[in-house]
Amino acid sequence: xxxxxxxxxxxxxxxxxxxxxxxxxxxxxxxxxxxxxxxxxxxxxxxxxxxxxxxxxxxxxxxxxxxxxxxxxxxxxxxxxxxxxxxxxxxxxxxxxxxxxxxxxxxxxxxxxxxxxxxxxxxxxxxxxxxxxxxxxxxxxxxxxxxxxxxxxxxxxxxxxxxxxxxxxxxxxxxxxxxxxxxxxxxxxxxxxxxxxxxxxxxxxxxxxxxxxxxxxxxxxxxxxxxxxxxxxxxxxxxxxxxxxxxxxxxxxxxxxxxxxxxxxxxxxxxxx
Length: 273
Known about the structure:
By secondary structure, the protein is mainly β. 6% of the residues lie in helices and 32% in strands.
């Protein structure tokens, strides 16, 4: 077995590991921690003449984004535009992209890339500290609330906000924030984003199906599209407070409106908190 480190003209480091004649290359791009790419079993999408979307890939659990765009050159990846975050260079041009669960909720999913269909696999891991930084907007940070919420809906009697899950839950929802809507209440999408007062995305809330005959919808952090996230309401309130000076958060609704939660660390219309 041989292990050696090479550097290209840009100073990027590559480690090449040769085992029984099989070469496995892991790219350390933009300080991303590499994941093992051997026998990954990843399903790949081919990049042709235009950018592609990599879906259902929560590479950075802290920010809860699951859809990414790879540019047509295959050398850069970024969140969708409405996330208002910077992209990351991949260090080289690739033609095939896939995603797979790392098996560790704290790490999230791993992005895989190849230059050819039968070529070597390159594995990328990212984190919130070093990658996909928020871009500054006119409000002093974030996309600006007006850019993500066309109008604001206040919490009424048809909405239950819980900063933590019910005691009878035995899954991840037990310790994450949830929003339950009664029939006649606002319409929450299956993957609802949560923003602070500057329009910064804090996390997502995935729909729980079936919602039950009593409810129009039920969404939770740590469920569905937000499976890798683990924030409770107090976590969200703290993140919002640090960014905006207020613990209020805004939940995405269908049609472009947002539901204002005055304090994400408090329960509203719930007797179980």
